[in-house]
Amino acid sequence: MLNARKATRITPHVASPTAVPTTRIPVSSTSSAHFPTSRNPALLPRNFKKAPIEIDRQVGHWTRTTDGREIFDASGGAAVSNFGPGEIPRIKAAADQASARYGPYQCGLSYDTEPVQQLADALVRSTDGIMESVAFYGSGSDAVEAGFKLLLQYWQDVGQPERQIFVAREQSYHGTTLASLSLGSYWSRRDPFEDLLMDVHHVPACSPYRGKKEGQSDKDYVKHLQDQLRRKFEELGHGKVAGFVCEPIVGAALGCVPALPGYLKAMQEVCDDFDVPLMLDEIMCGWGRCGTLHAWQDEGVIPDVQLIGKGFAGGHEQISAMLIGRRRGIVDTIRDTSIIFNHGHTFQNPAKCCAAALETMKMVQEYLPNVRAMGELLMKRLKARLSAHVNVGDIRGKGLFVGIEFVQDELSKTAFDPQDAISAKIHEMGLTHAFQIHVYPGSGSANPHGKEGDHIILAPPFDINEDEVNLIVDRVGALVDHFFKEQNLAIQQS
């Protein structure tokens, strides 16, 4: 094992985390009244009903708050802090060194730096040359936007400007810009802007817990999904589709649902039949999170465009990447036709961020065996602890990327009313003094329109050990038990 650290704080002056409680935690403690109002009215909040918790400091895998809580990060924040939210000296040192040498900002229109070139070369090598070119941006949404425009320009340059239609999947999430929001189908994020979004077509996701019929084999289910994609391309017309976009393992919108074996390959076969580029969004599920550096590497597919973000620099810097595949000749086409890729950002190819991402890449590769081993252990122990719970419908995932879906009862798989906000309330209860654990909430996993279904995501740091796996299982198990005990009691009394 790479890390024999015990599951306690590494700073001796801080008290040990609160033990898992044995008393009931009232559901009312998760209401918005539990949280203080913002002490800075000048700051626009994400949610006007509750203020975020103020952090005192972060050390290792723990976040200490100003009111004395010590919260274990069981989700990498939003699957970002892949070595914990605290400072990682070697990543910080790499970023600081690059900043000291090249300055805090370099104009990408005019300048290049060694860290940017080194990271690009390392990324291409990590794909065994399947990908050939890389560009670096800020957020994951930025990378998706770049991939979207890259394919549109490519089709213009090859003389097929009529290829303007994108096909993506239901119950997916690809970002918050108008183009990336159009690709996704996450209802709660799309709804306010629906009239402004582009006309992207969607096919069903690969979601065996909800999508497979009784008695249907995995192979037959994959064939059914393949046929649906083929029919969609035929419906839209040959020579009309610019690209097909999907997440190899769906994160926020479905709660860590891996593609079944053979699914991605089946989708690529259809794409190849219709000469449609395959764009894989690995912003949440990639970069080692599922046990391989790139999520597609053990799936037998070759992406034309790949997107990376979130934990790309371990949360130390804001950076994402668009990787372009070699087999279609996209880079050669744009170079020989347009000369420029007509998409640029003020903050593009930053030296400091690339240096941090390169050091993170080295750490990720060192810890891949631990991701696989601890991921298997986490899944095994979570299932042993929660599979029999009447309100736990499914526990799924890959590596250190695990989702738990909640239902009214496990036999009918009936989802909760969206107004109940079950996953959000579980997330909030987890942050209380009683539990002190951060899990990532999600909704929309129960049906294609994405309005029903509750899940939480566990995406803990890559260097966790067995003690910390046990800590996560104990605290999440107690959290789920107490929440639904109070939830069901409240229903009975209403």
UniProtKB/TrEMBL annotation:
It comes from the Eukaryota. GO terms for molecular function: pyridoxal phosphate binding; transaminase activity. Belongs to the class-III pyridoxal-phosphate-dependent aminotransferase family. One of its GO terms (cellular component) is cytosol. InterPro entries: Aminotrans_3, PyrdxlP-dep_Trfase, PyrdxlP-dep_Trfase_major, PyrdxlP-dep_Trfase_small. Transmembrane segments: none annotated. The lineage of its organism: Eukaryota, Fungi, Dikarya, Ascomycota, Pezizomycotina. This is PLP-dependent transferase. Keywords: Pyridoxal phosphate, Transferase. Residues 19-40 have a biased composition (Polar residues). Gene3D superfamilies: Aspartate Aminotransferase, domain 1 (3.90.1150.10), Type I PLP-dependent aspartate aminotransferase-like (Major domain) (3.40.640.10).
